[in-house]
Amino acid sequence: MPEAPLPRLSPNHAEMLVLSVLAEGPSYGYAITKAIDLGSEGSFAMGAAKLYPLLARLDKQGLVTTTWEEVKARDSDDETNGRRRKWYTLSPKGERRLEQHVQAHRRFTALIDAFLPPLEARPA
Amino acid sequence: MPEAPLPRLSPNHAEMLVLSVLAEGPSYGYAITKAIDLGSEGSFAMGAAKLYPLLARLDKQGLVTTTWEEVKARDSDDETNGRRRKWYTLSPKGERRLEQHVQAHRRFTALIDAFLPPLEARPA
DNA sequence: TTCAGATATATCCATTATCGATATATTCCG
DNA sequence: CGGAATATATCGATAATGGATATATCTGAA
In this structure, is residue B106 part of a structural domain? Predict the structure, then answer.
């Protein structure tokens, strides 16, 4: 029997995961996706089309602050080098939002579990 | 501070809840919504535009079987009375699907919880 | 008796969210 | 030398949702 696919992340869940990654320190888009990809064993892999609009929304709502970093080649000091990284830092407002998401998620799972058969100790 | 809104149900979660209601016995659309509405304290209230297409999909996939019931007025035996109810019964295939949904949901929450701060025993 | 609210099923449409593809450019490593 | 990885971002087609609309009956309170 095939592994049943996981339910898809709701927008709120996706936002919560991104914020939870940023709660451990500033990061940038690509690294955030990788963290979520690895941390979920690939189950919550986010495409760029999902990630970047989400990050833009977080910025617009003041949940994160952003700064650009010029990434220079290891073997070069060339300042005109165009490689760039956009760093995201969780704002106090973002921290509060994360806590709200976590609380909402706990209520969410509690409500759902009430519909499901109890998880019993399995006979050996 | 306002109650943070719950994450929205994914299609899989909505399907799981409907199937879990039917696992307790046959039911019909309106009663299913009421069961989910009450069982979730209104949090997962489903509009008709969500419920009926969902039920139609379950039927088409063979997860439920359906029968029509003619609902007669309490004080009448009139057979031409047009009130009707569509009953849904969980099929064996539907039972298996429900179990898959439940397993997937457990994995889903476990993966998400790994991103969140542990729920510690609170100091009194 | 009347009339609002509940019961009961179902679809339409505008909005939103998602996935896959596309675009661009650099850097790493074999 | 060249493909995979790094890095950001948008476009367009598809899918799912919420609110409204449609229809018809039944219940209970004023």
Answer: yes
Q: Mapping DSSP to helix (H, G, I), strand (E, B) and coil, where does residue A91 land?
A: coil
B45 close to A (CB below 8 A): no
Q: Domain limits at B97? A: 11-71+81-113
Closest nucleotide (CA of A30 to C1')? D7
With an 8 Å Cβ cutoff, are B8 and A11 in contact? yes
The answer to whether A7 contacts B12, with C-beta atoms less than 8 Å apart, is: yes
Establish if B106 touches chain A: CB-CB under 8 angstroms.
yes
CB A55, CB A64: distance < 8 Å: yes
How many residues can be counted in chain B?
124
Residue B14: how many other CB atoms lie within 10 Å = 18
- Strand C close to B64 by CB, under 7 A: no
What's the burial of B17, exposed, middle or buried (CB within 10 Å: 0-12/13-18/19+)?
buried
CATH assignment at residue B33: 1.10.10.10
pLDDT at A80: 47
B57-76: pLDDT as tens digits? 999 999 999 999 887 655 55
